[in-house]
Design goal:
- With 226 residues, the chain is of the alpha/beta class.
- It folds into two domains: 119 residues, Response regulator (Rossmann fold, 3-Layer(aba) Sandwich), CATH 3.40.50.2300; 97 residues, Arc Repressor Mutant, subunit A.
- It has eight helices and eleven strands.
- Strands 2-1-3-4-5 form a five-stranded parallel sheet. A four-stranded antiparallel sheet has the order 6-7-8-9, with helices on one face.
- It is elongated, with a radius of gyration of 21 Å.
C-alpha cells in the first residue's frame, strides 16, 4: 500500500512514516498542497493524510472538495489542529473521513488506516486504475465523475485489457473472449484493430493518452496509472 502525506512538519512525517512501516506500506510526503493535489490526480494512493498548516495557494478543504468532484474516493484523514465542532462538520461534508489528534501516535494512526482500508475494499464488479473506473455490472466507464460512452465491443475490450492490466493480451485471446471465434483469427485481426482505434480515440478525448499500448506481433497492454 502507498499513502500520501501533506505536511511541512518533520514530527508528523516521522510519525506517519512509522505508522506506514507498521502496515508494511510506503509513504510519499509532500510539503505543498498543490503537489498533493497533482499527485492524487495522476497517481494511485490507498489513503491520504493532510496537515491543515501545509502551505497552499487554496484552502485545504477546497482541494479536498475538488478531489472528490474528480472521483478521487480514497480515505482522507485530517490532523486536527484544534478545530471546533462547526469546522469539523464542514470538513466532513467536504470529504474528510477521519480526524486524528495533533499528538497522534504511529500505532493510533496505523489502526485508523487499517480500519478505513478494510471498509474501502473494492467491489468485485469494479475495475480501477488511477481515477478511471469500469463498472462491469452496469457496463459503464468513468474518468473521475465524467462518464465515457463506449460501444458494447469497446467496453468489452477495455474491461478485458483492464482486468489483465500490466500483462499483454493477445489477438487470439481477445478474439476468443469477445468474438468467440478463435479459429478465424486472420479475418478478425483487422476488426479488433478498428475497435481498439475507436476506443483509444474516446479515451484520449478524456486525457488518457497512450493508455493502450500496442506490442507489435504480440497484442495489447494497459499499464496501471501510478
Amino acid at each position: 500500500m502507498i499513502f500520501i502525506l501533506a505536511t511541512s512538519n518533520e514530527t508528523y512525517i516521522r510519525s506517519v512514516e512509522e505508522a506506514s512501516r507498521l502496515l508494511n506500506s510506503q509513504l510519499i510526503a509532500v510539503n505543498h498542497l498543490s503537489e498533493f493535489f497533482i499527485q492524487l490526480i495522476f497517481k494511485t494512493y490507498d489513503a491520504a493524510i493532510i496537515d491543515p498548516k501545509t502551505p497552499s495557494n487554496f484552502p485545504y478543504l477546497e482541494i479536498v472538495e475538488k478531489l472528490r468532484s474528480e472521483g478521487i474516493l480514497l480515505p482522507i484523514l485530517l490532523i486536527d489542529i484544534d478545530l471546533n465542532a462547526q469546522k469539523r462538520i464542514i470538513a466532513l461534508r467536504k470529504g474528510i473521513e477521519v480526524f486524528i489528534p495533533k499528538d497522534f501516535s504511529p500505532e493510533e494512526l496505523a489502526e485508523h488506516l487499517q480500519i478505513l482500508l478494510q471498509k474501502k475494499k473494492p467491489e468485485k464488479h469494479i475495475l480501477k486504475t488511477g481515477n478511471l473506473t469500469v463498472d462491469l455490472k452496469n457496463s459503464k466507464v468513468w474518468k473521475g465523475t465524467r462518464e465515457i460512452k463506449l460501444t458494447p465491443k469497446e467496453f468489452s475490450l477495455l474491461a478485458l485489457l483492464l482486468s489483465k492490466r500490466n500483462n499483454i493480451v493477445s489477438t487470439e485471446e481477445i478474439s476468443e473472449q469477445i468474438w468467440g471465434n478463435p479459429s478465424k483469427i486472420s479475418s478478425i485481426r483487422n476488426v479488433i484493430q478498428v475497435h481498439i482505434c475507436g476506443l483509444r480515440k474516446k479515451l484520449e478525448k478524456n486525457t488518457l493518452k497512450n493508455f493502450i499500448t500496442t506490442i507489435r506481433g504480440k497484442g495489447w497492454i494497459i499499464r496501471d496509472i501510478l
